[in-house]
Design goal:
Length: about 120
């Protein structure tokens, strides 16, 4: 009975912690033909994993909350297929991505930001 009570007490914490917008490294699921905001900072994207439910378009709005310039480029293998321009600190810009089924990498191509960990994953299911 005590275990059950403890589990019930922890459930709200577990649920709230899984989708917290301030938590870096989170995963977001979005339907095809939707819009999604991505935050850029030194040296990460939030969310860092995007699961798109179906091929189609995804409009990504990149908000640069860092102190350095950042961009968001979508790569399939080594080929860049979409992305935003490079934005100075404090700027926001949107890009419309036309995506087929498959796995993509998200990277910041400014300087050595990718090597410093500014990467993510985009999966189109």
């Amino acid at each position: 009975m005590r275990r059950f009570a403890l589990l019930l007490a922890l459930c709200p914490l577990l649920v709230l912690g899984c989708g917290d917008e301030d938590e870096p490294g989170r995963t977001v699921t979005a339907p095809a033909n939707s819009k999604l905001s991505v935050l850029a900072d030194e040296y990460s994207f939030d969310p860092s994993t995007i699961d798109l439910q179906g091929a189609g378009t995804l409009t990504v709005t990149l908000r640069n909350e860092g102190s350095l310039a950042h961009n968001l480029k979508v790569l399939r293998g080594d080929e860049e297929v979409a992305g935003t321009p490079t934005l100075p600190a404090g700027r926001t810009e949107s890009a419309r991505l036309n995506l087929e089924h498959g796995n993509y990498r998200i990277v910041c191509t400014v300087g050595d930001h990718e090597e410093l960990g500014m990467t993510g994953t985009l999966r189109v299911r």
